[in-house]
Amino acid sequence: MKKIMNVAENYTDDMLRGIYASHEQVKYVKDDLRCYCVKDKKPGKVAIITGGGTGHLPLFLGYVGDGLLDGCGVGSVFQSPSAEQIYNVAKEVEAGSGILFLYGNYTGDIMNFDMAAEMLELDDIETRSIVGADDVNSNENLEARRGVAGIFFMYKCAGAKAVKGGSLDEVLAAAQLAKDHTRTVGFALTPCVIPEIGHSNFTLRENEMAMGMGIHGEPGVWNGPIKTASELAKESLETILQDMPVVSGEEVCVLVNGLGATSQEELYILMGDIHRELGKRGVKVHRVFVGEFATSMEMAGASISLCRIVNDEMREMIDMPVHTPFYTQV
Q: What pLDDT sits at residue 278?
């Protein structure tokens, strides 16, 4: 294992110390580095809280900031934050209009966010919850799917609606709209190493890749020889469009996400092939996002997300400017 760190057990807290030292827009509460939130809350605004394990930057805490989220519970590498941490973040940023919990569809996260919601309800703070579940290859049932990079579009729509003064139910509906119309397919070329474990979390041979591999190393739908970018784009889009049909003339946003060790050049090669495949189908591309949005430590590979634009309001929500320490959109 080759990593720039001190003690493996302190990996997450040491990372957070560096973030707080670098970005004045965010702070921690209750003397707990893992209770991460905006420094200045906006009175009367619905507060949006996310959370999850370290190892996926900029997911989850990277989207806390202007126009997006208000706080994040931070777990250890690939582990859930505690219910108490989520509760403390929510108490800090709640601004009089309730809390939306918006996070990935993983068992530990669901359990702890539900516990935090029960604690908040005892304080007469209203909450709603929704999970990202965009990973098509993880399950045939939409509600059982893993939440991966496509949760970005849920953040964008919910954050925009909250900034515009939407009610708690309206912010939830904006997140639901993005969830209903977003799908993701991912693939891995290498494993990653969790610091506390010190070795790879799965094995791939030299010229082997895994289609559908999860961001924690969950098994995919096939392992086999590495395919070309054009082959990966075609297979991924066929999988997405079979699950969420998009007809000629309709409009989508495309997100091409690197998993941690994939060069920008490779992501743009992939994007070029995606654009060509969509063009063959007559599908219009409204906006493109290329970069790292949900990583898996130093895993090599990528994911492709499509978000279908179904009305003008959704387009405006996705286009709204945002600014966080990790992500800015003008």
A: 98
Per-residue pLDDT band at 327 (split at 50, 70, 90): very high
Tally Cβ neighbours within 10 Å of residue 31: 7
CA separation for the pair 155, 148 (Å, rounded): 12
Judging by beta carbons within 10 Å of its beta carbon (0-12, 13-18, 19+), is residue 196 exposed, middle or buried? middle
Contact 246, 214 (CB under 8 A): no
As a whole number, mean pLDDT of residues 305-315 equals 98
Residue 41 is predicted with a pLDDT of 93
Q: How many Cβ atoms are within 10 Å of 242's Cβ, its own excluded?
A: 10
pTM summary value:
0.98
Question: What string of H, E and C letters represents the secondary structure of the chain?
Answer: CCCCCCCHHHHHHHHHHHHHHHCCCEEEECCEEEEEEECCCCCCCCEEEEEEEECCCCCCHHHECECCECEEEEEEECCCCCHHHHHHHHHHHCCCCCEEEEEECCHHHHHHHHHHHHHHHHCCCCEEEEEECCEHHHCCCHHHCCCCCCHHHHHHHHHHHHHCCCCHHHHHHHHHHHHHCEEEEEEECCCCECCCCCCECCCCCCCEEEECCCCCCCCCCEEEECCCHHHHHHHHHHHHHHHCCCCCCCEEEEEEEECECCCHHHHHHHHHHHHHHHHHCCCEEEEEEEECCCCCCCECEEEEEEEEECCHHHHHHHHCCEECCCCEEC
pLDDT tens-digit map of 237-267: 999 999 999 999 999 999 999 999 999 999 9
Q: What is the mean pLDDT of the chain?
A: 97
pLDDT tens by residue, 78-119: 999 999 999 999 999 999 999 999 999 999 999 999 999 999
Write phi, then psi, for 253 (nearest 5 degrees): -100, 145
User: Contact at 8 Å (CB) between 12 and 36?
Assistant: no
Bridge partners, 36 (sequence order): 28, 72
Catalytic residue numbers read 56, 216
